[in-house]
Write a structure and sequence with these properties.
- This protein is an alpha+beta fold and 404 residues long.
- It has 3 domains: 99 residues, Rossmann fold (3-Layer(aba) Sandwich), CATH 3.40.50.20; 62 residues, Dna Ligase, domain 1, CATH 3.30.1490; 193 residues, ATP-grasp fold, B domain (D-amino Acid Aminotransferase, Chain A, domain 1, 2-Layer Sandwich), CATH 3.30.470.20.
- Helices cover 32% and strands 25% of the residues.
- The chain is built from 12 helices and 16 strands.
- An 8-stranded antiparallel beta sheet has the order 13-12-9-10-11-14-16-15, sandwiched between helices. Strands 3-2-1-4 form a 4-stranded parallel beta sheet. A 4-stranded antiparallel beta sheet has the order 5-8-6-7, with helices on both faces.
- β1, α1 and β2 form a beta-alpha-beta unit.
- α1 packs across α11 and α2 crosses α3.
C-alpha cells in the first residue's frame, strides 16, 4: 500500500469517461468514489477500482447543483473527502462548487470560469496580451452594434458554457444575428459573438504541476472541429513536427495562456487557430481536463504516456511531493474518427504495422496509428481518410445540447 492509502478521491463524471484516472487512483492506494448520472448506472465503469458509486438523478445529464451539494455533504458525514475531481468539461463548475462548499483543495469557482466560460477566457487572454479573435458579449446592444459596425461578417455565436462545437452558430449578417437573438430571448447573455477567422486549428495537450507546464504536445486538426461537427466530416488530428517554427510558437503561447489563467496543477487541452489572412496564431479556448475525441490515446500513441493516469498522480500529490514526468518516446501519431453507417464497422482490413488502436463503438469507426516518421503518419492519414469516406462515412445533425 502506498503513502496515499488514506486519501479519498471523489470523481465527478456526468459522462462515461476517466476509467484510467480511477484505476490509477486505486493503484496509488486511494479510496475512490464515483459520483455520476443515474442514466449511466449500467455504463462500463471500472468497478474493480471503485469503492463506492453514487448516482444523481438527471435529465439529459442535467444535474440540480443543490441536489449535488446535498448529496455530497451527506456523504461527507461519514467520508473524509480529500480530493474532488471533474472528469468532464460539464462537471468543472460542479466540482468547483463542491470544493468551495466543503472547503476542499483545488480549483475554485473563480479560476474554474477561465476554463469553462468562453467569455471569461477571451477577456482574460486579452488582458494578458494574448491574441484572440475580435469578440463582444451579447449583453449591451450599443456595444453589439458598435462591434457589428467595426468587424466584418461572418461571425460565430458561441454559448459561453457548452463544450466543443455544441450550440455554435455561424452568423452571416447583422440581420441574421438580431433574428437569432430574438429566438434566444433571455438566454442571450449566455452567448459571446466572435469574428470568424478562417485558418488551421491546433491543440496543445499539457500537464501542469506547481504552476509549470512540465509536459506538452502540439497537434493539428485535419478540418476545423466546428466544420466536422456541423457539416459532417471525418474528424482527424495528428501530432506536429517537433521543433518546427509553428510548433515552438504554439508551445510558448500555450504556456502564456495557462500562466495567465492561473492553472496550478492538472491537465489541459487548449486550442489555437493560425489565421489564413495574417499567418498569426490566435487563442480560441482552453480546459482543465484531458482532450476529448480519444486525444488521450493519440498522445499515448506518440509518447507512451497516458494523460488520465498522470492526471490522477498529480491530483493525489497536490503539490505535496515531487511529480516526475515518465520517460516518454518521441513518435508521431495520427487519429481518425467517423460516424459509420454500419452498426459495428469492420476495421480488420486496416492492418498496417503502425496501427496502435481501433475504436469499438456502435456506429463509429476510429483508428490511431504511430510511427517515428512524421511523413509516414501523414501518408497513412491521407490514405485512411479517403477509405473512411468510401467505406464507413455517414453524418447526422449536431444537437444544440449534449445528449445521453
Amino acid at each position: 500500500m502506498s503513502d496515499h492509502s488514506k486519501l479519498t478521491v471523489l470523481c465527478v463524471a456526468s459522462y462515461e469517461k476517466g476509467a484510467e484516472f480511477m484505476r490509477e487512483c486505486k493503484r496509488q492506494g486511494c479510496r475512490v468514489i464515483l459520483l455520476t448520472s443515474k442514466s449511466l448506472e449500467y455504463a462500463d465503469w471500472p468497478k474493480e477500482s471503485l469503492d463506492q458509486i453514487f448516482f444523481i438523478p438527471d435529465v439529459n445529464k442535467e444535474w440540480n447543483l443543490r441536489d449535488v451539494i446535498y448529496g455530497v455533504s451527506f456523504l461527507a458525514r461519514t467520508e473524509n473527502i480529500d480530493r474532488i475531481v471533474a472528469l468532464d468539461d460539464f462537471d468543472v463548475e460542479k466540482a468547483a462548487a463542491l470544493r468551495e462548499h466543503l472547503r476542499s483543495p483545488g480549483m475554485g469557482d473563480t479560476t474554474a470560469r477561465y476554463f469553462r466560460d468562453k467569455l471569461a477566457m477571451r477577456t482574460r487572454a486579452q488582458e494578458a496580451g494574448i491574441l484572440v479573435p475580435e469578440f463582444v458579449h451579447i449583453l449591451n446592444y450599443d456595444k453589439v452594434r458598435e462591434f457589428l459596425s467595426r468587424v466584418n461578417p461572418p461571425y460565430v455565436l458561441k454559448p459561453r458554457l457548452q463544450a466543443g462545437a455544441i450550440g455554435i452558430k455561424k452568423i452571416h449578417s447583422a440581420e441574421n444575428l438580431w433574428r437569432t437573438l430574438d429566438e434566444l430571448g433571455d438566454e442571450q447573455s449566455f452567448y459571446v459573438l466572435e469574428q470568424f477567422v478562417p485558418g488551421n486549428i491546433y491543440h496543445v495537450d499539457s500537464i501542469i504541476y506547481n504552476n509549470e507546464v512540465v509536459f506538452s504536445i502540439a497537434s493539428q486538426y485535419g478540418l476545423p472541429p466546428m466544420e466536422v461537427a456541423h457539416q459532417g466530416r471525418v474528424f482527424s488530428t495528428r501530432t506536429m513536427v517537433k521543433g518546427s517554427t509553428d510548433e515552438q510558437s504554439l508551445q510558448l503561447m500555450n504556456k502564456n495562456v495557462l500562466k495567465a489563467f492561473g492553472m496550478v496543477r492538472g491537465v489541459s487541452h487548449t486550442e489555437f487557430i493560425k489565421a489564413s489572412d495574417d499567418g498569426r496564431f490566435y487563442f480560441l479556448e482552453t480546459s482543465a481536463r484531458v482532450g476529448g475525441a480519444n486525444i488521450v490515446e493519440l498522445v499515448e500513441a506518440a509518447t507512451g504516456m497516458n494523460l488520465w493516469a498522470e492526471w490522477a498522480k498529480i491530483e493525489i500529490l497536490r503539490g505535496e511531493g515531487k511529480y516526475q514526468v515518465p520517460k516518454i518516446k518521441s513518435d508521431y501519431a495520427g487519429l481518425l474518427i467517423s460516424l459509420a453507417k454500419q452498426e459495428w464497422p469492420d476495421l480488420s482490413s486496416y492492418n498496417d504495422s503502425e496501427i496502435f488502436w481501433k475504436m469499438k463503438k456502435q456506429y463509429h469507426a476510429g483508428l490511431i496509428f504511430n510511427s517515428p516518421n512524421y511523413d509516414r503518419v501523414e501518408e497513412l492519414l491521407q490514405q485512411y481518410t479517403t477509405r473512411f469516406y468510401e467505406e464507413f462515412f455517414t453524418s447526422q445533425p449536431l444537437p444544440d445540447k449534449p445528449s445521453n
